[in-house]
Amino acid sequence: METHKDIKQKIEATLNSADTIEEVKISPFFKEKALCQMFAEKQQEPFVLWSWLTPQVQLAALFLIVAINVFAMMQLRNKYYDNEISNFADSYGLTVDASESLMN
Amino acid sequence: MEQNDFVKRLIAGEETAYGELLDDFQQKVFSTCISFVPNKEEAEDLAQDVFVEVFNSIHKFKGNSKLSTWIYRITTNKCLEFIRKRNTKKRFAFLQSLSGGSLPIDKTSYFTEMNHPGIILENKEKSETLFLAINSLPEAQKVAFTLHKIDGLSYQEISEITQKSISSVESLMFRAKKNLQKLLEDYYKKHM
Predict the structure, then answer these.
(1) Which of B76, B91, B128 is nearest to B107 (CA)?
(2) Is B149's Cβ below 8 Å from some Cβ in A?
(3) What helix, strand, coil percent values describe chain B, rounded to 5?
(4) How many CA atoms lie within 13 A of A66 on its CB side?
(5) Could you say which of A43, A64, B8, B35 is the most buried, measured as most Cβ atoms within 10 Å of its Cβ?
(6) For the segment A74-85, what is each residue's pLDDT rounded down to a tens digit?
């Protein structure tokens, strides 16, 4: 019972401790530091020439480049495949020469 | 009208206007920051971030509210963002979601090292425990309680900053006090 009462008192005292917190004064050089930071950031604005190159544009460009590369790879593979088949057919005499046709 | 002229000077980037702004608001912004983040150095860094944010987004200020309310809103958001980031580093996110944002008081997982020169020595232990308990409250209750009890703002001012009605602020305060009592009860039961 006594403990319960103690706890209640402690809770009250803890909640009331917020009223005893005193104001803390800011550092005397805060104003100068803040002004410096504000105007320093203004001077470091990005170069206007590249301002159009937003992350969205960059992403779109990346997708386009990847798509072109994939398409080019597919095209190259098809060409190589056709060439390799022709070479194989030539090597084993499997080609049908137009001059050897019975129809001629 | 006076505020409009002043805002125009701020938008134009006049250094003297920002000097005046700092004269008027640096102490208030810092007081709010240290109420949320009880560490003098970190609160000053946060206050600096607030003024940089004001500088960068003053053109977005529509004049629907007072300039002071808008600055307080930025300050509160900056502080919450800071606390959120620090808390995420210290806690498991899933644990937070499971418990609905209300976690038991734990000194080891507090987001900063306490260094609040405004806390008098005889109340150090109690105030630290109170800050730990506040950190365990859901965000809306944390904001209402901190702005009212620690920073000393009125319900009217809190309602303007949080864009909630006064009755909502009162309700948040009621729930915050109730939750704090529960959290502190659990804490003292363990530490008696």
Answers:
(1) B128
(2) yes
(3) 75, 0, 20
(4) 6
(5) B35
(6) 888 777 777 888
* pTM recorded for the entire structure: 0.74
Count helices and strands (H / E) in chain A.
3, 0
Helix, strand, coil shares of chain A, percent, nearest 5, are 75, 0, 25
Distance CA A84, CA A90 (A): 10
Question: Is B36 strand, coil or helix?
Answer: helix
* Cross-chain CB nearest to A17 (options B27, B44, B123): B123
3-class DSSP state of B115: strand
Q: Do A30 and B181 touch (CB under 8 A)?
A: no
- The complex scores an ipTM of 0.82
End-to-end CA distance of chain A: 119
Q: Do B26 and A11 touch (CB under 8 A)?
A: no
CB B74 within 8 A of CB B53: yes
Q: What is the distance of C-alpha B126 from the center of its chain?
A: 20
Range of weakest confidence among A90-94, B68-72, B127-131: A90-94
Letter string b/e over residues B42-57, b meaning 16 or more CB atoms within 10 A of that residue's CB: bbbebbbbbbbbbbee
